[in-house]
Amino acid sequence: MRALRLLFLALVGLLFGALLALGYLAYAYTRALPDLSLFERLRLTATSTLYARDGTPLAQIASVEEGRAIHRSLVRLEEVSPAAVAAVVFSEDRRFFQHYGVDFVRILGALYAIARGDLQGGSTITTQVIKNTLLKELAQARSLERKFKEWALALELERRYTKEEILEMYLNVVPWGGNAVGIKGAAEAYFGKDPAALTLAEGLYLASLIPAPNARYQDLKGVRERIRLLLDQMVEEGWVSRELAEAAWKEPLVPRGWEARYDGEGNLLEARLVDPEARLLKPLDYRMAPHFVLEVRRFLEARFGKEKVYGEGGLRVYTTLDPAMQRAAEGAARRARLPEGAELALVALDPMTGEVLALVGGVRREGDEYNRATRALRNPGSAVKPFVYATAFEAGWTQATLVPDRPLEFPDPSQPGGIWRPKNFSGTFLNREITVRYALDLSLNLPAIYTAKAIGVERVAEKLSQAGFVVKYPALAIAIGGASITPVDLAAAYAAFANGGYRVAPLYVQKVEDGEGRVLYQALPERRRLFDPLVAYQGWDLLKGYVYDLGEKSLAKGARVPGRVVGGKTGTTNEARDLWFAGLTPGLSVVVWVGRDDNRPLRMGGREPSSSVVNPPIFRDFVAEALRGRPGGDFPMPSGLVRARVDLLSGYSSPQGVEMVFPQGKEPLPPPPPEAQPPQETPPQEGTP
Alpha helix locations (H) across 251-289? Predict the structure, then answer.
């Protein structure tokens, strides 16, 4: 009897000692806990989402944690399907709504496991929130220190927050394998859907992954067995009906990256993991318009800094892209007939605001990040001439002003013999004076050079710089393309002929909000006066003439869109290294560029191609689809201008001539008596495009 008493006392002593030891460990481990107020200031990194102008998702930019891209978008509890929430809670912590952060029933099980040398078990949803946030550095440690700290912090977390708030936190912080964190990232990674659309079967699949997501993703058969067990338990405990459980079991579950086949009873007949990378979110994941998305990312980095974009993320970025117009642009680019080895850029913007509505930065290579629409600084060829003539309109010229088409030469040390002798594309000239309008219709070089010389090449150079051209020095060659510009900047410059004379700044982003809906950036269109409204409209009229004046002999006839008024100008540089068409129609300023990245001369069927053949049909194809169903019409003419019919060659008014616009008081005169008229010459059939 005495021996039994001594044994009992010894056991009590051991138990008391063990409790003292545990008490000391609890004190030691919890006396330096993280301040829970840090939790309130905790900023979870999140994926940033880009939206098109109609509100549809366009792309996602992953945030970065510990050097790797993280796919996490924060969601509210009500944004997750109840079936998925129930599946996660039942699988991970089915007594979640009964305990106070620490489940003592599970702790007893955990202590038993610890006694056997296994430190797993005892976790609740609340402790997992703590583990994945404040104790992240201990998340992988199987230690009593982590457990004691988790329990202490969990009790305080339960005191400060409601069960629903804690569950919402959990759904946003739990890692789901690959680079998916949180249920929104997991739903998109494994099933390509929003968490609100998750079914019970999909919720159970995701819940089954949580303890070891990367390993369990590789074992669909094992996860299916786990789902069967959970469904049966949910029925036994009254969480779901037998009918609902069987319907969930029979759902053919095929996570991304897998190929699987089921029978009608839900049994997995065949499963094969074909693409383990399919569940991973790329650092930049886009649905369309890759080069546009890249440009938006550059804007965000420049505006907010990389730490904000990647270290915090969670931005909602509302862009200017019009999805229907973008599809039209991509379709036109795919169908384009291009010279050998050529690339293509197409950009369309709103001439009133500068908002970029569609952008194609290249067509030949997948994953190509070089955006030719915004980065290809190339010579524009004859596409610069409308700016030369518009500058002359500022100086008092009109479309009927006569300008010589005769040979000329200038000193130039860079040319053979030190003399520059520019030529027209055809190598011939009219050897007479013709109207500015006709000079542009034929895209003649010599009249443009004469014009720049007459009004002052410095004046032309300054105007081109204001329009966005890169002018190294004011030489007469700039009048026929001796400057440089990108396609998007050329579209922004041409917008001045459609909006009353303003060069617009290309705009890609309308608004940026943070994760709480606070506005971080609100765009304001930037416009800079380039021409006065009367000059700008004369320039527009000049561009219309280029498309329509010469009928079937027009160099831009391929740009005509039935039911719409179009104006524009082609451009071809030396040896056809660059092919351009810049076009306008109400609602759009569009530029199509074609060239090689290595700047080598273009060839098409063994011959040197012309922009008048290659580019206008691409413009027409795009505009016809982009503006389908929208009203046509012309830009309204400002007061102070009048219309008159004018002979293209002589510049005299003529009932049989071409209709042009003029400032009031500058209308052309009727021709003099017949005996005083100079002899007329037959115009050439084509000129420099």
Answer: none
Query: Distance between CA atoms of 394 and 91, rounded to whole angstroms?
Result: 77
pLDDT higher than threshold 70 for residue 33: no
- CATH number for the domain including 204? 1.10.3810.10
φ and ψ at 305, to 5 degrees?
90, 150
Mean per-residue pLDDT of the chain: 87
Last residue of a domain, one of 247, 273, 299: 273
- Distances in Å between the Cα of 224 and the Cα atoms of 204, 210, 221, 242, 268 are 9, 14, 5, 17, 8
| CA dist., res. 278 & res. 257, Å (int) | 5
Residues 260 and 372 grouped into a single domain: no
Q: Locate 98 and state its tokens.
A: 């009964």
Extended strands (E) in 627-672 = 641-646, 658-663
Does residue 331 contact residue 325 with C-beta atoms inside 8 Å? no
The domain boundary, picked from 226, 251, 273, lies at 273
User: How many whole angstroms separate alpha carbon 339 and alpha carbon 11?
Assistant: 92
User: How confident is the model at residue 30, as a pLDDT?
Assistant: 47
Residue 475 lies in a domain: yes
Q: Which two tokens stand for residue 397?
A: 């010229």
| pLDDT interval class at 1 (50, 70, 90) | low
For residues 681 and 432, the answer to whether their CB atoms sit within 8 Å is: yes
459 domain-assigned? yes
CATH number at residue 471: 3.40.710.10
- Cβ-based neighbours of 556, under 8 Å, separated by 6 or more: 546, 547, 568, 569, 570, 581, 583, 612, 616
Q: Which two tokens stand for residue 428?
A: 């011939």
**120 is a domain residue:** yes
| Number of neighbours of residue 48 by Cβ within 10 angstroms | 27
Residues 6 or more apart in contact with residue 572 via CB below 8 angstroms: 381, 382, 425, 578, 579, 580, 610, 611, 612, 688, 689
Predicted confidence at residue 527, as pLDDT, reads 95
Q: State the Cα–Cα distance between residues 180 and 167, nearest whole angstrom.
A: 18
- Other C-beta atoms lying within 10 Å of the C-beta of residue 106: 17
Q: How many Å apart are CA 75 and CA 581, to the nearest integer?
A: 46
Q: What are phi and psi of 361, to 5 degrees?
A: -100, 0
Backbone angles phi, psi at 22, to 5 degrees: -65, -40
Orientation of helix 385-394 relative to helix 445-455, angle to 10°: 40
Burial of 603 (0-12, 13-18, 19+ CB in 10 A): middle
User: What's the mean pLDDT in 77-93?
Assistant: 94
Please, are residues 293 and 24 in contact by the beta-carbon 8 Å criterion?
no
Angle formed at CA 283 by CA 365 and CA 137, multiple of 5 degrees: 155
> Do residues 220 and 368 share a domain?
no
3-state secondary structure at position 422: coil
Q: Answer yes or no: is 657 within a domain.
A: no
Domain span at 143: 78-273
Strand 48-51 to 57-61 pairing: antiparallel
Query: 367 or 267: whose pLDDT is higher?
Result: 267
Strand-pairing partners, residue 641, are 663
Dihedral Cα 490, 585, 439, 602, nearest 10 deg: 50
Q: How many domains are contained in the chain?
A: 2
- Is-above-0.90 flag for pTM? no
Q: Are residues 467 and 364 in the same domain?
A: yes
Spatial contact of 291 and 359, defined as CB atoms under 8 Å apart: yes
Which residue, 498, 499, 462, is CA-closest to 478? 462
DSSP assignment of 127-141 equals: HHHHHTTTTGGGTT-
Task: Give CA separation, 628 vs 324, 336, 590, in Å.
Answer: 10, 19, 16
